[in-house]
């Protein structure tokens, strides 16, 4: 009789111990949302689907003094691949992801002009690579500021003053 009860008793003790350990070692609950979050969500509720990213998550926006949305961030769909050429052969490549900060309501204009933007951005990136901008400390603050400024000027030439800034969200250099 004891031979049949012992495995059952050990199983129940293990189950209770596992449950207790799971209860006491569970992760902390997520922090509560700040009280201004519902107001910001209601302000963005009247906006089109442009206020969400490809996964349906809200896009970060800058708020004006009255709480109104003043800008939107538009992530360009594909990465930019820039070959690094040294002495007539490819010595590596740089891969970048770019986003544009535009005034509120201009997201669709960015997507309509994306082929033209990509072409112009690639030319700026190729010029930056050909002048050695991606060599050495390519992520140096001054070097990145020069690149962002050139990209922003190019975007403003295409889309006008609605472009507030071009942001480099990811950058990777791979040497061969």
What does this structure look like?
With 176 residues, the protein is an alpha+beta fold. It is 42% helix and 25% strand. The chain has helices spanning 2-24, 37-45, 107-112, 114-130, 141-159, and strands at 62-63, 69-75, 80-86, 89-103, 163-175. Strands 1, 2, 3, 4 and 5 form a five-stranded antiparallel beta sheet that branches. The termini are far apart.
Detail the poorly predicted runs.
Answer: 37-50, 54-58
Order of helices and strands: HHEEEEHHHE
Rg from Cα: 26 Å
Helix content: 40-55%
The 3D shape can be described as elongated
Short summary of the structure?
By secondary structure, this protein is an alpha+beta fold.
Question: How would you summarize the topology of this molecule?
Answer:
Elements: H1 2-24, H2 37-45, E1 62-63, E2 69-75, E3 80-86, E4 89-103, H3 107-112, H4 114-130, H5 141-159, E5 163-175
Antiparallel strand pairs: 1-2, 2-4, 3-4, 4-5
Helix pairs in contact: 4-5
């Amino acid at each position: 009789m004891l031979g049949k009860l012992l495995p059952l008793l050990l199983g129940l003790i293990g189950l209770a111990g596992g449950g207790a350990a799971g209860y006491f070692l569970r992760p902390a609950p997520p922090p509560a949302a700040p009280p201004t979050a519902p107001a910001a969500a209601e302000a963005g509720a009247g906006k089109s689907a442009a206020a969400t990213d490809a996964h349906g998550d809200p896009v970060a926006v800058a708020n004006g003094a009255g709480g109104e949305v003043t800008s939107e961030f538009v992530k360009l769909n594909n990465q930019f691949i820039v070959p690094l050429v040294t002495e007539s052969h490819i010595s590596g490549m740089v891969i970048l992801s770019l986003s544009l900060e535009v005034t509120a309501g201009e997201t669709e204009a960015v997507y309509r002009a994306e082929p033209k933007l990509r072409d112009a951005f690639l030319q700026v990136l190729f010029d930056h690579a050909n002048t050695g901008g991606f060599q050495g400390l390519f992520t140096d603050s001054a070097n990145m500021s020069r690149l962002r400024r050139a990209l922003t000027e190019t975007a403003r030439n295409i889309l006008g003053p609605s472009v507030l800034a071009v942001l480099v969200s990811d950058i990777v250099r791979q040497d061969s």
